[in-house]
Amino acid sequence: MTLLRCLIVFSSLACPLFAAASADTIKVGGIDRSFTTLLPPQRPAPLVVVLHGGLQQGRDVARSTNWDRVAEEQRVAVVYPDGINRAWGDLRPAGERIRGGPPAGTDDVSFLSALIEKMTLSGIAEAHRVYLTGVSNGGAMVFTMVCKRADLIAAAAAVIINLTDGLAGSCHPDRPVPMLIMNGTADPLVAYDGGRGTSRFALPKVWSTAATVDFWRKLNGCQLRDGATTTLPHREETHGSTVTIIASLCPPRGDVTLYRINGGGHRVPSLTSAARFPLLSDRLFGSQNHDIDAAAEIWRFFKEH
Predict the structure, then answer these.
(1) In what helix (H) or strand (E) does residue 24 lie, and over which residues does it extend?
(2) Domain layout of the chain by residue ranges
(3) What percent of the chain has pLDDT over 70?
(4) Strand ranges for 117-255 from DSSP E
(5) pTM for the whole thing?
């Protein structure tokens, strides 16, 4: 319920309010690492850890996606961690990145593991319902966490990112983790079909989305072929992209699902646009799909696990 409805029924006890976003830090490896939380009144709750893209911070991905809304509607705890230097220290070597990154020796696996453990041990999060999602560089960090700390994660989702040789070669999860991948076929930075994208800022070399999906299918014991394929209704004619959901043939708790954004760019699908300069964003990053909301779709996948 909204605050207005709470006031109408005259009882805040009968209508607990969602806690306001709160900034905090945790010390990891002698360094204070920052994060922002949005917490429901009922605890413990499912926890979604949302990782920003390169050159961003947690507040940026909070602003540009609808995870705050999902949190309030679904009574989910959401945490937005901050990478050092606005980047994540995933498993890719420097030559497989667009530019820069956190300082040498940054251990973001330990940071995110400590953050998850803090949220579960404090009674905020349910240990068996911790989910991880990320955008671009944050998506690469999602892959990294599944590779290194699958024991902490019930399901994961990586948006606008593919695997690389270095990342895949270092990936040895100790158990299957359900995985959702959401990529645009016209992404100029992360080439959908592999190799280098068309943008001057493109990743030097990535796997294709098909190879990335098959990598996770193999790890999760799935068949290496597509399952059911569903093309969603096209709601918005102006953006031109459409959405096809491709399932996999997997054992229980090993789901691998691809959201293929046909004609989509290096953008997170959303029913509304958060871009301050839409035409410039379209030119630099490609089209944003408005048929679906990524956060809502990812949460629907997470709820099943």
Answers:
(1) strand 22-28
(2) 19-303
(3) 93
(4) 125-135, 155-159, 179-184, 226-231, 242-248
(5) 0.93
